[in-house]
């Protein structure tokens, strides 16, 4: 009896194994406690080990367990590969993002964007085109990043000799020169095209000219002559003029206020920096005025003289109708403050006084630009700039036609009232002559 039941059980197991060689794969998918079930199966197989043939037990059961183990190993390997790949992608993105951020001198480029935005606001009328402002700032940021990248490409050997710059992406080897050139080319073309499409051709021309002036004239001149500082001041004065041109479409006398202030401001700022970093500049091979000025007197005198040049800028902004009279007073007080630090540095040429003048220059510029925007006046000619060209042409044509009609009507001589009385009742009489009137 028991032999018959065992034979029937074996036939049923053979039939099930033929249909599904791995009967525990479904349990693996359904329940996480497959190990418990597998342990139960082990006890079951041990119980009937004396009756079930060993050949069946060793082939069917081992095949199912082997497939299960292979499936677990392959899934674990897939998870490990995907996690490693994601970590590598995040690491590469972080690495190159940081490298391009430093290559573009992002902090300096954002200062350039701030001066451009201020010039755009000053050149606008009562209503500021926010979309145009954003497009202009984005294009300026790209052009400034391109210029800074080319600057580091040309100065990679010099930067490797200076403590202040040897950790930049190119001298440290974190980025190749080819990548830097490609980046500068792409963002430079994109920024100039963005200014041309979203602003105007004048703004795009100023941006492209400033890029060429900074990368191909100012950068090599730093190793040739101390006049490079004045050339660099011109480069720094162009961005606010670019913003003014993007907003108004022209360059006017009022638009030169902020560029002039930036030009004179840069000289005490860079003279303090040249004095503080004169040993580093000498190691890098840059010809600054502080290298030949051992006493520092000429460096301090240049800084003081250009601080004095800033005094009439506030008065001119008020006189030319760009700001109110309060800005004239505030600008004068601000200029006297930075001039006081320059005078202190001139009288006592120490590192402490040079740092004080450098910090004063950092405070001066944002306060000056904030005062310009706060006290700016809305001129009538600026308001007319916002009228579309088609509408302006229609209004001008209408005015011309009206003037022509008035001129034609005034040239004709009017007939006296008696003429109508003489002709209408007596049509058979000859028409009178009014030449004597």
Automatic annotation (TrEMBL):
One GO MF term: protoheme IX farnesyltransferase activity
GO cellular component assignments: membrane; mitochondrion
Main location: membrane
Signal peptide span: none
Pfam families reported for this sequence: UbiA
Origin: domain of life: Eukaryota
Transmembrane domains' residue ranges: 108-127, 133-154, 175-195, 201-218, 230-247, 253-277, 298-318, 324-346, 358-378
Keyword tRNA-binding: no
Subcellular location: Membrane
PANTHER family (UniProt xref): PROTOHEME IX FARNESYLTRANSFERASE, MITOCHONDRIAL
Record-given protein name: Heme O synthase
